[in-house]
Amino acid sequence: MSKKKYNFNSSNNRNINRPVPFVGKGFKPKSRRWMGYFVFFIIIAVLELGTTSGVISSLTLPKPSDVLATMIELFQSGLLFKHLVPSTLRLIVGALIGISLGITIGTLIGLFSYIRSGLVPVVAAIFPIPKIALLPLFVIWFGIGEGSKYALIALGSFTPTVVATYGAVDNVDRTLIRMGQSFGLSWISIVYKIVLPGAMPGILSGLRISLAIAIILLVAAEMLGAEFGIGAYILEAGSLYDLERLFAGVTILSILGITVSVLVTMLEQKILKWRV
To answer: Rounded to whole angstroms, how far apart are CA atoms 223 and 86?
Structure first.
């Protein structure tokens, strides 16, 4: 009987060690930043053309060029920073308090059964309450100064962060946890090396939602008893029916939201660089 010889060094066998490229759409999205700029340009161009030609009434929407001129005037007069700096400080302080507490409590809820049983009903009761409705109560408790604004923003960013965090902890693959236990890792090592890294994508996704809610509540808080701030600026422009200033304030809020989104994206790229 003849013996067959097998060539284990063939080119087909060498291909086994090659990495498998992504061939499916959506599994590895690529950055197309120019597309976002292009969409913004088209929208602004259509609005400018419509308001200039009279198709869009000037009583409904101002010209984008007039809004830009108003923003330039705000910058040159120094009023932009008088409104933007207090708003940014309120957003940072309030969101930092709410998000840090939310991640801490959400992680504890995901790890400990007694804490989960005790706090999940409380969070479920607080979460659907419109936080803006609690602003008069915070004014009574903390006064009309900065304390009530910080408290409102902190509470608004706290509840979605809690829900996103303990949901992300629950979704960590239990096989990885059992693997860590089989290798003799301690409970703390499993939490820091397996649970938290595995839950981080969900936590950062919840962070985007929490910061968006924080910006909304920032405007609401500044519309009540704030001398300076983007919300106070928009309220004043709306009471005077000054559309250019009103849309300038809305544009500043949009830029603030885009900046926050970019910062979260940079944080994701730094923390989640282990993902391929």
So the answer is: 13
Give dist(CA 101, CA 123) in Å, integer: 13
pTM greater than 0.85 (yes/no): no
The Cα 182–Cα 100 span in angstroms is: 32
Give whole-number Cα distances, 78 to 75, 82, 124, 130, in Å.
Answer: 5, 7, 44, 35
Q: Which amino acid is at 223?
A: M
Q: Is the dihedral of CA 191, 192, 194, 199 positive or negative?
A: positive
DSSP, collapsed to helix, strand or coil, labels residue 228 as coil
**Which residue pairs from 53-59 have beta carbons closer than 8 angstroms and sit at least 24 positions apart in sequence?**
58/243, 59/243
Q: Which CATH superfamily is domain 85-271 in?
A: MetI-like (1.10.3720.10)
* Contact by Cβ (8 Å): 95, 157: yes
Report pLDDT digits (tens) over 114-143: 888 899 999 999 888 888 888 888 888 888
Give the integer Cα–Cα distance in Å for 176 and 155.
Answer: 34
Q: How many angstroms separate the CA atoms of 127 and 158, rounded? A: 9
Q: Two tokens at 136?
A: 């008069």
DSSP character at residue 4: P
Q: Where are the alpha helices (DSSP H) in the chain?
A: 11-14, 33-53, 64-77, 79-111, 113-126, 135-142, 146-170, 174-182, 187-190, 196-222, 230-239, 243-271
Through-space distance between the first and last CA atoms of the chain, rounded to whole angstroms: 50
Quick check: 50 and 60 in contact, CB under 8 A?
Answer: no
Encode pLDDT of 165-192 as tens digits.
999 998 888 888 888 888 888 888 888 8
